[in-house]
Amino acid sequence: MSASSDSLSDKAYIEHKEDVAADVKPQQEEEAQAVDPKFAIRVRRKIDLRLIPILAALYCISLIDRTNISVARVAGMAKDLKLTVGERYSIVTCVFFVPYIIFELPSNLIIRKVGCRNQLSTIVILWGAVMTGMAFCKTWQQLAVCRVLLGCLEAGFFPGCVYLIATWYKRYEQSRRFAWFYLASMCMSGFSKIIGYGMSLLAGRGGLNGWQWIFLLFGVVTIALGIISIFLIVDFPDKAKFLTPEEKAYAIQRVQEDRGDAIPDEMTLAKIGTHMCDLKLWAFGMCFMCSTAASYAFSYFLPVILSGAGYSTKMSLMLSAPPYVFGAVYTAVSAHFSDRYRQRALFIGGASLMCMIGLFLMAFVGPIAPRYLGAFFTIAGCQCNVPAIIAYQNNNILSHSKRSVGSALTIGLGGVGGIFASLVYREADYPKYLPGLGATIGCQATILIILALLSFHFRRCNKRADEGTFVIEGNPRFRYTI
């Protein structure tokens, strides 16, 4: 799967890392030898509390802002902006992802120079301003332009967060941390529909319709969180100021002992090209794309599907929340055991199978009750795999430059999944969306095939590395996580 980075030729990189790398050992043994356990726990908790909550809150509002268009649609926007004509609604949801995909890699390449706090807080404030402006759109074309601007700004956020989190944690701590980061957004993705419905009840106040209040109030909240984040977002470990010198040294040391890439390497065009030629990065990205196709589809269309099944606007929005709560619980449990047993593909494959079962129920079962149950399985499976695939990728690559490129590439392909979801769930197929559900089933099958190929490749490479005939990722001590 990797033609370039898994070679023996990168001797300079090996020599540089061998001076500081240590054997990969179980986490408890490493820390017991290096520092006092109480000190180690205190530093990890300090990192967790400063890093995860603010990023989770910002990603939560990010996901709400890009998907609350489904709530606005059933709250009067479809009628006011004539979105039911042709494929206008699909176009408006789709155009977000074009700039979102294009600008992800450039934004990740400059984040170290600009600084995490400066880049992430600035784009949050700016996209909040765009959200506020969406409340005053008079035509569907104006709404589409705002969605393009939203995509430009949000492009730099998610991959930047993933890159930042990955640099702070050891490999078998990452699945839980990515899950914690993502869990808040999962829960709020469901409850945001209810919150949005509550906002829509302000219809008529100030001369605004219900959908306009949704955009306006969420926009104001986003700007407020962006301002708060200026004071709370932390930087990369080598630039962090919230730790004492001793704590900072330990934070860097523990990552160095785990995988040998705590020291940032220089980003060059040659390295970018080399990383982009690594086929396994594209394999991770394809898995992520297939997972986000389902998660975006249900963020955009679940209230619409429920409404088409005969539920009122209020009930369709209320019933959208419980599947996300179930999905959050499933994601937390899966992430915990994935880290504990140091397995990735097994848990990702299990979630894909659960998602497929849910999709079959929604597509081919007549009564509404089992179809609604299918939404629980579908959302749990696809949402669980978003942080799981990110952890899978970050466990199997080395160096800051490759982590930056890999995060942007994977999440960029996730944006392709958003385009896919926007286009295959067509207005002409309302209310059951059978072609879209069938295409999403195919996406889950694709994940299973890629996992099988990656597992075979990783086992083969690990065996050769154990025999001393192959070097993985330029580090003789590194082994793939299967």
Summarize the structure.
By secondary structure, the chain is mainly α.
Distance between the termini: 14 Å
Number of helices: 21
CATH superfamily (homologous) name: MFS general substrate transporter like domains
**β-strand amount:** under 5%
**pLDDT averaged residue by residue:** 87
CATH topology, anyone?
Growth Hormone, Chain: A
Low-pLDDT regions: 2-33
Tell me the domain tally.
1
Based on DSSP secondary structure assignment, what is the total number of beta strands? 0
Derived from helix and strand composition plus strand pairing, the structural class reads mainly alpha
* SSE pattern: HHHHHHHHHHHHHHHHHHHHH
Structural Rg? 22 Å
Annotated CATH architecture: Up-down Bundle
CATH top level is Mainly Alpha
In percent, how helical is the residue content?
A: over 70%
Largest sheet: none
Q: Describe the global form.
A: globular
How would you sum up this structure, described in words?
The chain is mostly helical. The protein contains 21 helices and no strands. The longest helix has 33 residues, at 434-466. Keywords: Membrane, Transmembrane, Transmembrane helix, Transport. Pfam families: MFS_1. This is Major facilitator superfamily (MFS) profile domain-containing protein. GO terms for molecular function: transmembrane transporter activity.
